């Protein structure tokens, strides 16, 4: 079995870890502690204020990357036709948009200078999962059918 298959299957475990891992630590004033924000805690907070936006973020951060990973695994094990690869690539682009938005929020908050924000290991794990999935998708589209 190809190494890419194992990496893709490992993403099925790593994504949920990345969703609960701290993406960033934020606080309003230097005297107060920093609270950790994960994908799931961010979604919980959004759900209370803007259900539509919470749905969009859930689609980008949870559904799109996970469905893409499952789809790629099905293609790799010849359980799904290779013609689905363009649709799976689109799912990966949606997931990458979420990483971009998180990075944009961090940049804006740091630029405004209100409070304090630090990136945490979960942001790197989440980004690595998205990028690994993207690379697997690219490799799979270049692979010749068996």
- Number of domain modules: 1
Q: Just name the CATH architecture.
A: Up-down Bundle
User: Helicity level, as a percent range?
Assistant: over 70%
Tell me, briefly, the overall form: elongated
Walkthrough of the structure:
This protein is mostly helical and 146 residues long. The chain has five helices and three strands. It has one domain (3-142): Butyryl-CoA Dehydrogenase, subunit A, domain 3. It has helices spanning 3-20, 39-49, 51-76, 85-112, 121-142; strands at residues 24-27, 35-37, 116-119. It has a three-stranded antiparallel β-sheet with strand order 2-1-3. β1 (24-27) and β2 form a beta hairpin. α1 runs antiparallel to α3 and α4 packs antiparallel against α5.
What is the element layout, followed by pairings?
Layout: H1 3-20, E1 24-27, E2 35-37, H2 39-49, H3 51-76, H4 85-112, E3 116-119, H5 121-142
Antiparallel strand pairs: 1-2, 1-3
Helix pairs in contact: 1-3, 1-5, 2-3, 3-4, 3-5, 4-5
Describe, in short, the structure shown.
The protein is mostly helical and 146 residues long. The chain has helices spanning 3-20, 39-49, 51-76, 85-112, 121-142, and strands at 24-27, 35-37, 116-119.
